[in-house]
Amino acid sequence: DTGFEDHRPLYDWVLAQLEVPGRPQQIEFSRLNLQYTVTSKRKLKQLVDENLVEGWNDPRMPTIAGMRRRGYPPEAIRDFCRRIGITKSDNNVELALLESCVREALEPTAPRAMAVLDPVKVVITNLPESETIWLTVQNHPKDPDMGQRSVPFTREIFIDRADFQMEANRKYKRLVLQDEVRLRGGYVIKAESVVMGDQDDILEIHGVYDPETLGVNPPDRKIRGVIHWVSASENMPAVFHRFEPLFSVPFPDAVDEDYRDLINPNSRSVFQGFAEVSLKNQPQDTRFQFEREGYFILDEAAEDEGSVCYNEIVGLRDSWSKGG
């Protein structure tokens, strides 16, 4: 830290008094100022002591323990440090660069899986309740060596609530009433009717699947798009934590207000959903890409006792400009 530069004469005097064959050299450089957080140990300790975060290993904290629990791969952090280098000038770094390094490390290595964070039930009326169709799905679309997994397709499935609308134009690439969409790794389904609740909310979607569309597109019509899903009867209930920056302004240290007043109240969102059954008994440190959602890791330190919990590592969308 450049704040210790005034101590250099004392360092040099001590070294001059020592009879050592080699003389070590110290280099002062500026503090790393990462957007939307603070890196001062005093302020981080204050966040912990005042219970403004869970602890030093809170996934929103810029600590080694926090990044480990968040699921950041070590190679991504090393890549990030190489890219920013060291300087004596103020080093204000975009959070998007760190997230880009994490994303680049995970994309080729993270097996794919499906999880529904905000579920709504779809009933496939032309599939008998007693029948389960086991689908074979690749674990990674670009790496066949990562193998395959079996995914159960059952009469009742869950899709994300945001993936259905009663009506929409052709730009909407998800499921629409009286139209079709493909299930990831599975069949084309058509939504035929809905069951509404007392608050005009959608309780269930009823539809049919086309058994001739596994792995092939129908020749006589165009399908809107592809959505993810999980079986409603064979799945793994889970809690999902999604994160936004800990602070609501890019550099909380640079404003006149108390930095604690700038904490983002929406820095963590909790969802009760379902993951595909193949994720049961996976190693704790396995990082997954949940299709169309983001990269996640199992959180054994979560407070949601009795529930499987996943932390979002980073989203799928890369906002970092490679051109700098």
Description:
By secondary structure, the chain is of the alpha/beta class. Among the domains are: 105 residues, Orthogonal Bundle (Glutamyl-tRNA Synthetase, domain 2), CATH 1.10.1160; 114 residues, Ribosomal Protein L25, Chain P, CATH 2.40.240. 15% of the residues lie in helices and 30% in strands. It has a 7-stranded mixed beta sheet. Strands 14-11-12-13-5-8-15 form a 7-stranded mixed beta sheet, with no helix packed on it. A two-stranded parallel sheet has the order 1-2. Strand 11 and strand 12 form a beta hairpin. Helix 4 crosses helix 5. The relative contact order is 0.16. The mean pLDDT is 92.
The CATH homology group name of the domain at 115-228: Ribosomal Protein L25, Chain P
> Main β-sheet: number of strands, strand sense, barrel status?
7 strands, mixed
- Residue share in helix: 10-25%
CATH classification, class level of the domain at 115-228: Mainly Beta
The fraction of residues assigned to DSSP E strands is: 25-35%
Query: What pattern of helices and strands is seen along the backbone?
Result: HEHHHEHEEEEEEEEEEEEEEEEEE
Q: Overall pLDDT, averaged?
A: 92
Spatial strand sequence of the major β-sheet: 3-18-19-20-16-17-4
The name of the CATH topology of the domain at 115-228 is: Ribosomal Protein L25, Chain P
Q: How many beta-strand runs? A: 20
What is the structure about, briefly put?
The chain is an alpha/beta fold and 324 residues long. It has helices spanning 8-17, 41-49, 64-70, 74-84, 95-106; strands at 32-34, 91-93, 112-113, 115-116, 119-124, 133-138, 148-153, 156-160, 164-165, 175-176, 180-183, 188-196, 202-210, 226-227, 230-231, 235-243, 268-276, 287-290, 294-298, 308-314. Among the domains are: 2-106, Glutamyl-tRNA Synthetase, domain 2 (Orthogonal Bundle); 115-228, Ribosomal Protein L25, Chain P (Beta Barrel), CATH 2.40.240.10.
